[in-house]
Amino acid sequence: MADEELASALSAAARGDSGAFATLWWSLQPAVLRYLRVIVGEAAEDVASETWLQAARDLRGFSGPPAAFRVWLFTIARHRAIDDRRRARRRPEEPHVLGDQDVAAVQPDVAYDVIQRSGTDWALGVIASLPKDQAEAVMLRVVAGLDVAQTAQVLGKRAGAVRIAAMRGLRRLADHPEVQARRSPRAEGV
Amino acid sequence: MGTSRRHRIGSREAEQLLTADPHASAYPALSELLAAAAAPPRPDERVGLAAAVAAFEAAGQDARPSAAAVTRRRLFARSVAVGAAIVLFGGTAVAAETGSLPGAAHKLFSAVGVPPPEADPTPSTAVRHVPTATPVPVPTPSSSRRPFLAEPRGLCRAWEARQKNPKKKPMPAESLRVLAAAAGGEERIGAFCAAPHPPGKGKGHNKKKSTG
């Protein structure tokens, strides 16, 4: 959704308009979900719900443009994700349920895996295999649509560090076996 | 497998990959991955709208105080204003004018230690301890020889004079704030000052009842 459309929904939601809030959620939940999928895997849905719960509580005091809202929302999502990881670490007895991306990591037949999984799920799984800071930088730039400065705000980092993390992430992605497997023989490097 | 990459992705290329049209990319497979990550939303990613909206509406309910809480807050604020007025004006006429005091006010006064009608040397101390819903900055008397609160009725006189003649110098902000707190709001000062004051004092106040 274009920022201009989001702007009016945002100000209406800040005044308590639940239809406008639904518009915001409709527009941004998929991106929030995908970002969380990469950093907390299976807990993505739960953490996304917690994110919107906090946003719902604090939205009535929010004032700012849509870009600021996206920064704010993804910052909340990130904090809730960190909380979730802390909670998960305190429960070592709980068996770790293998998610799709875990299976992918051990799946010997890369080509099979690449064909079977949907494009988006596959892509998220590959990005999730990156070091955390690189995965986050790539997701916030590409999926959340944040620029360098906004990404830096969410991550609490300097812009330079965000650029470097994203660049290293892309290098790793370019060299990833599953990405290489998807390359058509005629394409890259020719 | 195709040939390995010619060179490592640099920062400018990274920026292009992150923002540019995937079809023009020098790294098609990578661009395809990024495009897949950012592909249009799927229906299964939009499950849960109703729950989210319900949470939003519930949050709105929590933010709004209950009717009882609003009433309590109003009574408390009024009792504080009345308390401040009693400390300032040292009389029961104010209480009479505003009707019977809410029960909470009595507890408040005992806690504050409202001085008897005879002038207390440091009434400002008592007022400062009043827990107010709206903060009332009371000037400390230390700097002036005669505490500003030693001439309480001067506040109303000053205000009324200013109303009659806007050319006069405006009241000090703190005086106005204290008067507004006593009146229960700046817009109520007129009615408050017009109310009859303790017998024997003040002149020229008109006798019409305040509606505040």
Give an overview of the whole structure:
The complex is a heterodimer of chains A (190) and B (212). Chain A is mainly alpha-helical. Chain A has two domains: 3-89, RNA polymerase sigma factor, region 2, helix turn helix motif (Rna Polymerase Sigma Factor, Chain: A, Orthogonal Bundle); 101-182, Orthogonal Bundle (Arc Repressor Mutant, subunit A), CATH 1.10.10. Helices cover 74% and strands 0% of the residues of chain A. Chain A has eleven helices and no strands. By secondary structure, chain B is an all-alpha fold. Chain B has a domain at 67-194. Chain B is 51% helix and 0% strand. Chain B has helices at residues 11-19, 28-37, 49-63, 67-89, 93-97, 103-112, 123-129, 153-164, 173-183, 189-194. Chain B is elongated and about 85 Å long. Chain B starts with 10 loop residues before the first helix and ends in an 18-residue tail after the last helix. At the A-B interface, helix 2, helix 3, helix 7, helix 8 and helix 10 of A face helix 1, helix 2 and helix 3 of B.
